[in-house]
Design a protein that fits this description.
The chain is an alpha/beta fold. It contains five helices and four strands; from the N terminus they run E-H-E-H-E-E-H-H-H. The protein has one domain: Metalloproteases ("zincins"), catalytic domain (Collagenase (Catalytic Domain), 3-Layer(aba) Sandwich). Helix content is 50%, strand content 21%. A four-stranded mixed beta sheet has the order 1-2-4-3, with helices on both faces. Helix 1 links the parallel strand 1 and strand 2 (33-42). The protein is globular. The two termini are 24 Å apart.
Length: 141
């Protein structure tokens, strides 16, 4: 089950039902089973504090993934800075909704075992993100 939480932020234009449905389908496409996943939307300062406290990193980031996966059942907490997502969307000239979906599925892919610490891993991660983004349906047909 995927649950969405907000820490002192709003996410304009989010269709949480479609987002959750698409992320569920992404998990299945990766051959995994869904456990408990929390998407926690927050601001830059909240995520910076978490980055310092839990990872000893002193910089802004768009997502921090806490992985509780066991075997093929993926579970975890995905903390996402809405500030970073919207700023990155502007820099990349990408619609904010697309960048938000990319960051969400990026966290899901980390739970599925994908890494992005070197250029080869990063290329594979981007390829899987794009694969799943192409599967997103913005409205019921």
């Amino acid at each position: 089950m995927i649950q969405i939480h907000y820490i002192e932020v709003e996410v304009p234009g989010i269709n949480s039902e479609l987002l959750v449905l698409w992320l569920n389908e992404s998990v299945v496409r990766e051959g995994k089973s869904l456990g408990e996943i929390n998407l926690v939307f927050c601001d830059d300062e909240h995520l910076l504090a978490m980055n310092r406290a839990h990872l000893d990193h002193d910089y802004y980031t768009d997502i921090i993934t806490f992985d509780y996966t066991e075997d093929e059942v993926i579970s975890g907490d995905l903390y996402i800075s809405i500030d970073r997502v919207f700023d990155n969307a502007r820099l990349l000239k990408e619609p904010a909704e697309v960048e938000l979906r990319r960051v969400c599925v990026h966290g899901i892919l980390h739970l599925c075992g994908y890494k992005d610490k070197n250029s080869e891993e990063e290329a594979q991660m981007r390829s899987r993100e794009n694969f799943h983004l192409d599967k997103y349906v913005s409205r019921e047909t």
